[in-house]
Amino acid sequence: LLRRVLHAIRGRRALTVEYQSMSRPEPGQRTLSPHAIAYDGFRWHMRAFCHEHEDFRDFVFARVLTVIGEAASNIEPASDGAWHTSVQLVIAPHPQLPEGQKRVIEIDYGMKDGRLIVHARRALLFYLLKHLGLDPKPRTTPQAKQVVLLNEGEIIPLLAGEESSRQAATGP
């Protein structure tokens, strides 16, 4: 599968695949024009234009059951704005942690002056927030949520469009 996806990326080809999404009980055919692959810390994805939904989405490699065929694609990878848009997350130790624990978190993350700037593609923002334990769902204690997102007001609105596309393609 990886070989077929890489071939499609290099040759600007569309793949027709049988795909098992979380949103449908049975596998279905999708025509995808992949342009990148990414690892979210847990699973490998292909970033592709979904011809069914007419937008760019993430597709989990393991959910591609078979490649049925391929054809030329006229999809321009540069038109995937979320993939080509960089965002900055500013993280810091949770403010309710004791000072000693804050210092430990600063060391763990290599923070300078009590904060760290993390660059990410907007398309991968949901996965990064989840990986860092910064998803918008609140946690109960500072020990459970050791770092906070200082620029949450800028970042969370960016998730709205990406999360709906991600949910439709990959499921929770």
Question: How would you sum up this structure, described in words?
Answer:
There is one protein chain. The strands form 2 sheets. Strands 4-3-2-1-5 form a 5-stranded antiparallel sheet. The chain is of the alpha+beta class and 172 residues long. The longest helix is centred in the last third of the chain and has 19 residues, at 152-170. It is 30% helix and 34% strand. A hairpin with a 4-residue loop joins strand 3 and strand 4. The mean pLDDT is 89.
Outline of the structure:
The chain is of the alpha+beta class and 172 residues long. The chain has five helices and eight strands; from the N terminus they run αβββββαβαβαβα. The chain starts with a helix and ends with a helix.
Extended strand count: 8
Distance between the termini: 23 Å
What's the mean pLDDT score? 89
Low-pLDDT stretches: none
Helix content: 25-40%
Q: How much strand content do the residues show?
A: 25-35%
- What is the string of SSEs from the N terminus onward? HEEEEEHEHEHEH
Discrete helix count: 5
Integer-rounded radius of gyration: 18 Å
Rough outline: elongated
| Class from secondary-structure proportions | alpha+beta
Going across the major beta sheet, what is the strand order? 4-3-2-1-5
Biggest beta sheet attributes: 5 strands, antiparallel
List key phrases describing it.
172 residues, alpha+beta, five-stranded antiparallel sheet, elongated, 5 helices
List the helices and strands and how they pair.
Layout: H1 2-11, E1 13-19, E2 28-39, E3 44-50, E4 55-60, E5 64-72, H2 81-84, E6 86-93, H3 99-109, E7 116-121, H4 125-131, E8 147-149, H5 152-170
Antiparallel strand pairs: 1-2, 1-5, 2-3, 3-4, 6-7, 6-8
